[in-house]
TrEMBL record:
<protein>
    <submittedName>
        <fullName>Oxidoreductase</fullName>
    </submittedName>
</protein>
<dbReference type="InterPro" id="IPR036188">
    <property type="entry name" value="FAD/NAD-bd_sf"/>
</dbReference>
<keyword id="KW-0560">Oxidoreductase</keyword>
<dbReference type="Pfam" id="PF13738">
    <property type="entry name" value="Pyr_redox_3"/>
</dbReference>
<dbReference type="InterPro" id="IPR050982">
    <property type="entry name" value="Auxin_biosynth/cation_transpt"/>
</dbReference>
């Protein structure tokens, strides 16, 4: 039995591991993937961070690039791997946990091939679990290629013919931009009003301004934090206005329904689409943890990562766990620090 188990070896699990190592705690990380950085490497090939180097540091090891540089997904995966190596973080891979329950004060943690036990448990499985695709995708002709953004890599995956990108978040507009740059005709489905902010303003990075105006310190329990965390998150770094003004980009409004080859949008129907990228997000899945309650978005009930239901159970890496920075490389350390302080205080009491 371990004193602590962490489920998930992404930036959140590694930050927690760093803290546990610093305090010489006995712990182990379990991860479903076969190596570190897998969630980053699975994302599309041209992905670059919207946070520059100086906002990507995990605790105890700086991100190894010059200030102002926007790393790609390979560089992030390499950094996470070096981080785990540097601090000799113990990780068991290929262990997707399918059930967690607390029995007689001990967490019983089960994968398809092994059982583990721990006195305290930290869930760091990230915010993106089940890809969501609107139900009308099932009414679309079989010869139309449909890809969720989770599986999109590059325009080379697409078959001949027109394309449709659905979703007005960061993923949707970045994928739209990449496909539009190939000259192919791309229909875009999403809201008319996409809030967007540039990556730099008056010579300073967006994240510099965020820090300056205190945005990254606003927490979800404050009035303004409640408003910000529940609102639409603006697209960062894509010039959406110019993108939608391109000759080969047709903005169709929201997708309403589909009938074989014909897809109906707010602004009309189209029958020529041969490829669809659904950048329509993910639903959280924490239902494999027994005896916990959920909020209206199906995230586990917690205060700053401390479970409201089960003593010794913690969460890290959820969007707006405490602030906008909670689910970022450079912000997760604050939540890890808070949890570590909480754990130590409880042990000392
Ligand atoms: C397209 C995109 C761009 C982004 N750009 C930036 C950016 O520019 N800057 C920034 O700071 N952040 C960015 N983020 C946000 C954030 O940094 C990432 O989402 C980050 O990957 C979250 O880290 P995590 O450790 O919480 O979760 P993840 O990286 O998702 O890691 C979770 C780990 O848990 C494991 N796991 C999951 N379920 C189980 C299970 N049941 N059993 C065992 N293991 C499990 C997975 O295998 C995975 O290794 C971006 C996110 C996306 C999607």
């Amino acid at each position: 039995m371990k004193e602590f188990i962490i489920i998930g070896a992404g930036q959140s699990g590694l930050s927690m591991a760093y803290n546990l190592s610093q305090h010489k705690k006995d712990y182990l990380i379990l991860d479903a993937n076969e190596h570190i950085g897998a969630p980053w490497l699975k994302r599309w090939d041209s992905l670059k961070l919207f946070t520059p180097t100086e906002y990507n540091h995990l605790p105890g090891m700086p991100f190894p690039f010059p200030k102002g540089y926007y790393p790609n997904k390979y560089e992030v995966a390499d950094y996470l791997k070096s981080y785990a190596d540097k601090f000799s973080i113990p990780i068991e891979f290929n262990q997707k946990i399918i059930s967690v329950k607390k029995v007689n004060g001990i967490f019983e943690i089960t994968s398809a091939t092994a059982n583990y036990q721990a006195k305290q448990l930290i869930i760091a499985t990230g915010p993106f679990h089940t890809p969501y695709t609107p139900p009308c995708h099932a009414d679309i002709a079989k010869d139309v290629k449909q890809i969720h953004s989770e599986n999109y890599k590059s325009p080379a995956q697409l078959q001949e013919g027109d394309c449709l990108v659905v979703g007005a978040g960061d993923s949707g507009v970045q994928i739209l931009s990449e496909i539009a740059d190939t000259g192919r005709k791309v229909h875009f489905s999403g809201t008319d009003k996409i809030p967007a902010i540039p990556q730099t303003f008056l010579g300073k990075t967006l994240w510099w301004w965020f820090t300056k105006i205190g945005f990254l310190s606003v927490n979800r329990y404050s009035k303004i934090g409640q408003w910000l965390s529940k609102g639409v998150q603006p697209v960062i770094g894509t010039d959406v206005k110019s993108l939608l003004a391109k000759d080969n980009v047709l903005h169709m409004g929201r997708t309403l329904s589909a009938d074989d080859c014909s897809i109906k949008f707010q602004k009309g129907s189209v029958s020529s689409i041969k490829n669809i990228i659904w950048a329509t997000g993910f639903k959280p899945n924490f239902f494999w943890i027994e005896d916990i309650s959920f909020d209206e978005m199906n995230y586990p009930s917690n205060y700053r990562g401390v479970s409201k239901d089960i003593d010794g159970l913690f969460f890290i890496g959820l969007p707006w766990l405490y602030t906008r920075g909670s689910a970022t490389l450079g912000g997760v350390w604050k939540d890890a620090n808070y949890l570590m302080t909480h754990i130590l205080a409880k042990q000392a009491a």
